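Example with several molecule types.
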Amino acid sequence: GQQLNQNPQSMFIQEGEDVSMNCTSSSIFNTWLWYKQDPGEGPVLLIALYKAGELTSNGRLTAQFGITRKDSFLNISASIPSDVGIYFCAGLTNTGNQFYFGTGTSLTVIP
Amino acid sequence: SAVISQKPSRDICQRGTSLTIQCQVDSQVTMMFWYRQQPGQSLTLIATANQGSEATYESGFVIDKFPISRPNLTFSTLTVSNLSPEDSSIYLCSVRRGGLNTEAFFGQGTRLTVV
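Resulting structure tokens for the full complex:
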């Protein structure tokens, strides 16, 4: 299957700091989704991207669909303790039926 | 978005037994999927649950081990058979909204521990 690599694997930041993470693939995707997963819960959709170069915000979260269509980025501004969790990217190819998931970025926010 | 309810939310099972997980969606959906998430890992697709026909399994997953039912457009079950400790994972039901701008939504997951 497709391999989506997320970086960094984990982050420890101070409350109030900004966060950046990315997701890269060897394949071209037509759709990128970003999810947050809390312990014991299923992933919750944060942002959906459908066009190369697209920049979309959801509150303090901003995600971008890379120009090459092989990558995507998620930024969180002014982090707060409830941002703690694991963030996953997911991509869908033009011909694919399933979303492929990234390896995840674990975020810890230190108050 | 879609509201997806999974049951049970967690279970502890003896090896050799089976667990059936139910997934109920609040609206009709064309595409339903079952994922496995092993401890500390990402999500891996087990199969696509097809309404009215056999599920489509991904490489490494077989029907005998993971039988799936999809009797209608709002409900599906996944059974994990002949359990072993290696089956201890979170199992997630997902639905995908169709159309040009598609999204995927997840249930809260079922945490299975095999002892």
